[in-house]
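Note to self: keep these together.
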Amino acid sequence: MRLRTFSDTPGHQLVLSLTPESLHLLHLQRSALGWRRVHQEQRPLPAGDTFLAELQTQLQQCVQQWRLPPLTRAHWVLAGDILGLTAPAQPGTPASALLPFAAADIRSQPDLFARSEHPALLWIHRDWLAEIERISEQCGLQLVELYARAQLLQREAARAGSALTVVLEPASAPTAEPASAPPPGLLHIYGPGGALLRSRVLEGSERSSALADVLQAELAALPGPPPHEGAPAQLLSASQPPGDWPNLRWRALAALSEGERLWRLWRSDLEGIVVRATHEELSGKLKALSVALGILGTLALGAMIWHDGQLQQQIDEDSADVRRDAPRVAAAQALKQRTLHMADSVQAFEALQQGGSALDGLALLTRQFPPPPATLLYVRAEPGALAFAGSGDEASVQALRERGLPGYGPLQDLPVPDFLADSNPAIHLQTQKLPPQPPADTAAPAAAAALAPELQRPPAP
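Structure:
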């Protein structure tokens, strides 16, 4: 049922349970968290000719009181005196032989709960169907589906696990007879797996003293051999009924409220007599949604194609700009390279200017170094020092010490570097650069200024 009501637009559902004594209503509303029970009420109904008029009045009052929107979907649960039930027939028996009316005068639906090859048949006369639909329309409701009263307890009967399960459902409204529990008002008989066999309303003395006889008559009326022969059978009721119940083991019926049973039936996947199939409505909405999504997809595809064209046009324009600017970019890169080379040249020139004293020392050493057989092997020229090593003899060493290097101090021994130790060089000297001397024309005035105080001092006595 949930699949058939998932796409309900108003967001309201009404489940109605009708028995000869009362009308029970359950109002459901859909919220962001799902369906929830909003209102629940039970209204007593009189017997006789005023039954239908009072039913419409009570239903109209609840619809107005709960402010249900127009065309709220209604699901009716009807007792056996309105919605009949035929037991499964023997193979080859036509359904018309089991129905009390012609097939054209009824609406029917097989009971598919037990998945039997020969299921029971739910049926309702078209006059009753027209009357219920008229009452629904007068109250602003839309009749969707009709359920048998026995389907409320079908799952509980299936859990009993018996070949035959008899359920005595208590009356919906209290009677005048004082009792600790309401007397049974409805009789349901189920086969293996909860398959529907019989369902009827109990009247008068059938609810007490003649209940066992009624049950025996109903079992005897079932077509074919009794389904409980040689197998255990169970009796489910609110309290253990009086009388002799042979071959039936009593078990208490689950104590659930009417609203809870209606809620479970509405949430289940049980099938009733469908008056208005909502599958087509759901399919129509899905088709409309598919068409809308298709249109949106086409528009999105067109937008993507247009955007792709714009991107391609922009790429072509950018490529033309790149080709047009390529010579200028190449010229700018060449200018950048030349600028970098010039900057490197300037830095190298400045480095040569700053390190000129070291190069001067190397040039001076080259001029002052003794002639062959003396050979220069190693030089370390720094701005303030000069170290060198070479091959030669004692005369070469002596000549270097006597001549010296102009602008440098006396030559001193240099420890032979490790990489020259094997060659055993005879010349290994080092010296420090002397500070620069002031020019001669400025040296004399400076010396005179230093001697001026001495000249002005009087001679000692």
